[in-house]
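Hi support team,

I submitted a single chain yesterday and got back a structure, but I'm not sure I'm reading the token output correctly. Could someone confirm the output below corresponds to the sequence I sent? I've pasted both exactly as they appear in my results page.

Thanks,
R.
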Amino acid sequence: MQVSMNDALNTPLASNKAAFSLSVPAPRFAAAQSRLDHHSALTVSLPWKIGTHQAQDTYHCLASALPLKRYRDVPRFLLWTLRIRKQLATAAGLAGYRLRVDLLHKRFETLSAWESSEHMMNFVRSGFHSRMLVDMKGRLGASLFTEWQAGRQELPLTWQISTQKLKEAQHAMHGENN
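Hi R., thanks for writing in. Yes, this is the structure output for that exact sequence:
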């Protein structure tokens, strides 16, 4: 099912009416899906949004998993997400990004590609993103981040590669081998 962000969140957007997919599998398959990819039956995934920078062979990539501690913080984080998407629309050095939200498990995931780690960190430390970090302090659970280099031919980045990279990072943090 394709639904506009305006219809889904009942919130006006200045521009970039992006469609998202809403996955609701049959109940008997929901548990199996959740075990396989750790996402609930109510997962919202925005498509890859192309950024302002597209002129190089290698990009600095970031995948993040951001679990919220409480359900009551989901609307607050969704509002920050809308604001940050506006910031991303003009972010220097951004090749592209996508967002996935697992509402049932209060889990937000991001995936982005940047001209350099410096461009990525400049974005993180500025505008709505930096304000969100202050506002959401203490509201997030154990977040996970991983960075790597990817070639132009690997864009747009997929959730499959994000999941793989996050699992590798989690195993590395806990000293586990694949």
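A quick pointer for reading it: The radius of gyration is 16 Å. Let us know if anything else looks off.

Best,
Support desk
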